[in-house]
Amino acid sequence: MQRFPQPLLTGYRNFMTGRYTVERDRYRQLADAGQTPHTLIIACCDSRAAPETIFDAGPGELFVVRNVANMVPPYEPDGQYHSTSAALEFAVQSLKVKDIIVMGHGRCGGIKAVLDPNAAPLSPGDFIGKWMNLVKPAAEQIQSNSIMTTAERQTAMERVSIRNSITNLRTFPEVKALEDGGKLQVHGAWFDISNGELWVMDKESQDFVRLDG
Ligand SMILES: [Zn+2]
User: What family does the Swiss-Prot or TrEMBL record give for this protein (predicted)?
Assistant: First the structure.
């Protein structure tokens, strides 16, 4: 029989004796009543930037979508496969989340790739390259900025991409209507994996401001 990864077996045992034991009633209640998460988080697949860990969230609290570089595509009802849009639709229309957070992070590999003019496709499908086309125009502008260092361009692009995703979120008619009606709030956040800092986007200025820990 194929062997399940040992770190996961160990982790699962720890979960069952630790967290599940503590939260058994909560899991049962969620199983019976269904989930009512208050927040949708769109985060990166990066193993270092897990929203449930960063926000110390328990079961049933966060509805999480993770994709490469935490991006939201624009509203495109074209009959194609749109996994992020499907999750967004479910969170907004069915779960009626009150907040949506687009959370980027430092040292993002997807952002690094889009800023690298020599990046070659990883496979013939070049799925990452095509996905990152969502921010290619902004990346080309930032690439041409010779005053910034490579690290500064990376951080700038991570934040520009968050703003771009928020702009795209608002192209979904339901998101726009709920936000305009005061029933839904849209936020940007950026997590620095090197020191644990969380920076939150100011709604008016769109600048990122560090939260006090
Ligand atoms: Zn990332």
Answer: Belongs to the beta-class carbonic anhydrase family.
pLDDT tens readout for residues 52-94: 999 999 999 999 999 999 999 999 999 999 999 999 999 999 9
Strand order in the sheet with 208-210: 62-67, 39-44, 99-105, 185-191, 198-201, 208-210
- Residue 61 C-alpha to ligand 1 middle, in angstroms? 22
pTM beyond 0.85, yes or no: yes
Query: Taking 80 as the threshold, does the pLDDT of residue 117 lie above it?
Result: yes
Ligand 1: distance of its center to the CA of 30 in Å?
Answer: 30
CA atoms within 13 A on the CB side of 46: 23
Q: Which residues contact 50 (CB under 8 A, 6 or more apart)?
A: 43
CATH number for the segment(s) 35-210: 3.40.1050.10
Q: Where are the domains of the chain?
A: 1-33, 35-210
Question: How far apart are the CA of 64 and the centre of ligand 1, in A?
Answer: 15
- Closest listed residue to residue 201, CA positions, set 109, 99, 115: 99
Q: What are the φ and ψ backbone dihedral angles of 212, each rounded to 5 degrees?
A: -70, 135
Q: For residue 212, what pLDDT is reported?
A: 84
In angstroms, rounded to a whole number, what is the distance separating the alpha carbons of residues 81 and 102?
Answer: 21
